[in-house]
Design goal:
Elements: E1 8-13, E2 16-21, H1 28-32, H2 57-66, H3 80-84
Length: 89
């Protein structure tokens, strides 16, 4: 939580109060400042940690559209009940 200490919030997630930094509170610029990191280092290689920006859905779509073959995109929302309760702006 050191990167964005002013963004620490408590939300109800799956019936539990969770205090953390949530993606819904970050701007795109803040997300773009992050780098991808392997969350399971015991199971997968970490040689590419911190080398790549977090990819946006728009960038994934461009990769798929520019691929030399048919590519499917299957977006997944990790906590749909949490996100469904968020106000639409």
């Amino acid at each position: 939580m050191a990167l964005f200490p002013d963004k620490v919030r408590t939300y109800m997630v799956d019936g539990q109060n969770v205090t953390d930094i949530f993606s819904v509170d970050l701007t795109l610029a803040e997300v773009r400042s992050l780098r991808a990191k392997q969350p399971l280092p015991a199971l997968r290689p970490t040689m590419y940690d911190d080398h790549f920006q977090v990819v946006t859905l728009e960038e994934y779509l461009q990769i798929a559209l520019n691929a030399p073959r048919t590519v499917g995109i299957y977006p997944e929302n990790k906590h749909p009940t949490f996100h469904n309760r968020r106000p639409v702006s």
